[in-house]
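stuck on this fold:
=====
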Amino acid sequence: MTHTFRVVLGVLLLTCGAAAFAQAYPAKPVRVIVPYTPGGGADFVTRIFTKGLSDQLGQQFFVDNRGGANGNIGAEIAAKSQPNGYTLLSAANTTVTINPSLYKQMPIDMLKDLVPVSILASQPNVLIAHPSLPAKSVKELVAIARSRPRQLDYASSGTGSSSHIAAELFRSIAKVDIVHVPYKGNGPAMADLISGHVQLMFNNLAPSVPQVKAGKLRAYAVTSEKRSPVAPELPTMAEAGYPGVVFNLWIGMLAPAGTPADIVSKLNAETAKAGQVREVRDHLLAQGAEPVAMSPSQMADVVRKETAQWAQVVKAAKITPQ
């Protein structure tokens, strides 16, 4: 056996071994770390997809909630796990693309220590207000805010949350001086908004729509590029006159750096397939979210673009963690 033949044979064996490994994957249960406490939007979306993946691949995909530090704790656990496809991360873009600018010391490099699989689902925020504000449109609201600098308060579910970042983006683009009032979670923020203790909020669509329909809040516009099927009557912020105010809260799946490309590709294909199942789509839409399918490289582009974008917003607003 010549040296050249041995080399070729070795390459073929390695290639076949990798292909067989990917085909056999998953051969045991897969842990999907959600870096937040149970019950939130990311947890809900992830559980829908893990059920779909379990059904499709014949192995259990189970959620492991590891909350803390806006998702940094769970993200670090996932990034430092064995890169074999059996520990994954399902996190919101607030963790993946905003935390690197929010925290002076990050436990991991989101762009280097994790590899994208796919964005699973996306949902817009909606600008809502207490009905005591007479504005009937975003432009009227901006006019009131400009005439009353630092007199309008906006609630958020916490410093660095999607509701906070969306409002700061709006504040910057609309050139209004409104005051941030952070809460420890969405529930107390909404309670104070409904009671009129604060006037404004950018909130997830699903918990906002029932309050709007009940007449307890007024909705103005969504922060997505297109109207949401959950509330098609609401214009986008671009249609309302503020095209720069685009903020989609997305939940994405990532794997530790070094995970075999074949496994990443398989997970990518299977999550896209799960997102097309009618039951999955219906559950997501009920929460104001829509399934998203994109390649790992497309998700990587989104992560890089948003990381740079939110770095500017965080710096301009001088946002620091609570």
Summary: The chain has two domains: 3-123+248-317, 125-222. The longest strand covers residues 114-129.
